[in-house]
Amino acid sequence: MGSARGAEIADQIERANLELIQVVRGCSEEQWRTLCNDEGDNRTVAVIAHHVAHGHQQNQDWLDTALGGGEVKITLAEQDVLNAQQADTYHEVAREETIRLLEGNGARFTARVAALSDEELARTAFHTGAGRDFTVDQYAYLDYRHVTGHLATIRQALDLPAS
After folding, report:
1. At 155, is the secondary structure helix, strand, or coil?
2. Which domains does the chain have, with CATH numbers?
3. 44 with 95: CB under 8 angstroms?
């Protein structure tokens, strides 16, 4: 059975993800293609939303690695390369595909987090890119920060009020 902390993190992620889905659904075609000054690379709303959807899966992989006692070995430079490759690959991504990924990957990740025990959340694993140990709790919370950070960028690019 999951802990109250796991349920709390899962709920935060789910609410942020649903908010992003709502913004994506409400975008006009022009807004969907709007450039955002996100991390200095001017990705579109479409690319960033799709990136977040894939991020749920990557964060679950990291969480599972940490739970298994492994090291998350990706460096910041490697993550930057992966993000750039993803932006190149998915620059013409469809809105409905992105929504399906946000819903499915988000639901899988939040269910995984909600099922974690306090003991599991307290485990630690080294993250090469950060250069330090994170608890599983912190790995789970990275997903929330990922969603909310990109959501804020999208809201700013579309001149939407902060949530």
Report:
1. helix
2. 4-157 (1.20.120.450)
3. no
| Contacts of 48 by beta carbon, 8 Å cutoff, 6+ apart | 36, 38, 150, 153, 154
The string of DSSP letters for 49-106 reads HHHHHHHHHHHHHHHHHHHTT--B---HHHHHHHHHHHHHHTTT--HHHHHHHHHHHH
30 sits in which H/E element: helix 29-32
Residue found by looking up tokens 């969907």 in the block: 32
pLDDT tens across 116-128, in order?
A: 999 999 999 999 9
Note the pTM of the prediction, 2 decimals. Answer: 0.92
